[in-house]
């Protein structure tokens, strides 16, 4: 695609808008995942300008660009202030929740070495970032069940799973799938009693729960003030409303943060000191996060939290009143998941998409039924009645349509298929033979895809998803 001669900026922007014609809308609150919109253009504008201003600053060498160090100290300080850390609480600004979790896991592995393969005790509702970090860092995940009615981690199960090789125990505040807060105080106390570190994944809730509490919600203790909590992650690119690429991980102790760092002088080039997984990286996201925090301020976050709380309560109540639908658990943050009794939720999701709304499908797992997930944000309130109407109408349509027609025997074939034995082209043909067009433009009907995946065990789902990714990037 490289042109012979350089193209103008107008020309490039025109092509970008063409490329984006099938994208989900990032404004307006009709996309209830991936996007966190304040509904305040001036805040977005401040973030974009600051991002642009810091774009070319490279945080690879903190001595070369002291601006980035000063900004990071302020941002980390703001998060520590909200999450029960005192002045000087050690933290790291990272590119996202996954990287924050990766660094907390590395710190746990390196801070207290064990004889065998280091183990991490992780409730089944915890984010896959823990599995990813374990995969990258050579750790073993010990999954523990959650309560089937409340979806919260069970402290006794956590206690049972701790072995002499366990380096870290995880709790979520809240866990993403059902938006409930694990019993952090109990789990952290168990970890501390066994001499094990405890990470709280507050990626989605860290910059939300304290404001919700201030707005009148009841929020159980989950932050650094809870005895036994040794690290906590908080994504600013979620309820901090910052542009993507912004998260913070805090540690209870400077020695733990040092265990997250990496330094190398083992080559004849410049000395490497990295706080994060990335080495050369733009300070743009840091500038964007710094500006967003300052542009909203306490008043802004509290106002957004009030709207978020009102919208969440209205949504949960409204969904509960739609025949055939039920909210899973009692969400404490602003994440609402609902399942269908005589309504196929995957079909419901496709129906809503036809009406311009995106509701995120979640596959059944560990005894938890398939469901749809809504992330309620500050802009949701203005459209909450419209959203409920769309959900009710889509549920009606889904009930009338019935479940998606999955070709007979397909799940069995896929579960036993040796994917390594077929190439991408064959995989594409296989998908086409059951009516799934992987090469097509625009938004595919996903109900059949989701129903097929839902019928498979997790390892088969993973193999197919990996292949899917390889095909769409080919
Ligand atoms: C989003 C999220 C993560 C991972 O964050 P990324 O920023 O997508 O890497 C981890 N844990 C929870 C609970 C989350 O919601």
From TrEMBL:
Keywords: Lyase, Pyridoxal phosphate
Protein's UniProt keywords contain Flavoprotein: no
Lineage: superkingdom: Bacteria
Name of one Pfam family that matches: Pyridoxal_deC
Cofactor(s) required for function per UniProt: pyridoxal 5'-phosphate
Keyword Lyase: yes
Xref: InterPro entries: GrpII_AminoAcid_Decarb, PyrdxlP-dep_de-COase, PyrdxlP-dep_Trfase, PyrdxlP-dep_Trfase_major, PyrdxlP-dep_Trfase_small
Family: Belongs to the group II decarboxylase family. Sphingosine-1-phosphate lyase subfamily.
Name assigned to this protein: Pyridoxal phosphate-dependent decarboxylase family protein
Organism: Sphaerisporangium rhizosphaerae
